[in-house]
Amino acid sequence: MKAIWTGSVGFGLVNIPIKMFSAVEESTLDLDMLDKKDHANIKFKRVNENTGKEVAWENIVKGYLVNDKYVVLDKTDFEKASPEKTKHIEILQFADEKEIDSTYFEAPYYLEPEKTGTRAYSLLRDALQKTGKAGVGIFVMHNREHVCIIKALNNVIILNRIRFAQEIRPTKDLHLPTGRSKPAELKMATSLINQLTKPFDIKKYKDDYTEKLLKIIKAKSKGKAVPFSPLKIVHSKTKDLMEQLKASLSEKRKAS
């Protein structure tokens, strides 16, 4: 794996030099965009809007429009904005992970210690596991500030990049029901939930869509027809919620 960020993590006066690695990898197929007529690859070019000529990556800079004139920024300008956060993640507080709404979660990363930070890394990992807490910090990556939580999982420290509160859209524009559920229906729904409750194991859930799509691709490459039955949504015959819940419970019992 290639490190995507290097720097340090600090809590109190303890400083841990680390490397950051992405904890996820895409499971989707890498599909190319083609011209429908001759299946030629579609290419996107970086073009100068004045000359119409392609511009090489090394000649591209970033700028911000101020009073109809661009202010061009270089790498040092981004670091000047917050030099301490471009290479360091300061844990500002600790909190119970359950307090952090999953809506804010964005992307997980593994943290690996440099050789000089192994003891401090182990200390932070073990302390997080013993207390059941997660650290909260802020850092800069890809020219953007991020808030994160840092927790221990088995033998590794994981950094979860999370969204700022202002990035979450308010729900005021949604048309949501305001009435309360009928007590009898609520009791029945609770029974169904309890019946379907079991220990969570993420390994039981796999991306089989990509695997099935690959089978279709291989079949088409051999000129074979792939059978297809469109999904038909069949609505319940009764609009009575209690009847639907009772039927759901009985179906679950049969399956058991």
Number of contiguous helices: 6
Major sheet strand order: 1-2-6-9-8-7-5
Q: Find the structural class using helix and strand composition.
A: alpha+beta
Mean pLDDT: 84
Measure the end-to-end span: 44 Å
**Helicity level:** 25-40%
Radius of gyration, in angstroms, nearest whole number: 26 Å
Strand-residue fraction? 25-35%
If classified by CATH, what would the architecture of the domain at 5-26 and 79-163 be?
Beta Barrel
E-strand count? 9
What overall form do the CA principal axes indicate?
Answer: extended
Regions with pLDDT < 50 over 5+ consecutive residues?
Answer: none
CATH class of the domain at 5-26 and 79-163: Mainly Beta
CATH domain fold name of the domain at 5-26 and 79-163: Ku70, Chain: A, Domain 2
Structural notes for this entry:
The mean pLDDT is 84. The protein is built from six helices and nine strands. It has a seven-stranded mixed barrel with strand order 1-2-6-9-8-7-5. It has a two-stranded antiparallel sheet with strand order 3-4. Helix 4 (183-196) runs parallel beside helix 6. It is of the alpha+beta class and 256 residues long. Among the domains are: 5-26 and 79-163, Ku70, Chain: A, Domain 2 (Beta Barrel); 181-194 and 236-248, no CATH class. Strand 1 and strand 2 (14-22) form a beta hairpin.
In short:
This protein is α+β, with helices and mostly antiparallel strands and 256 residues long. Helices cover 27% and strands 27% of the residues.
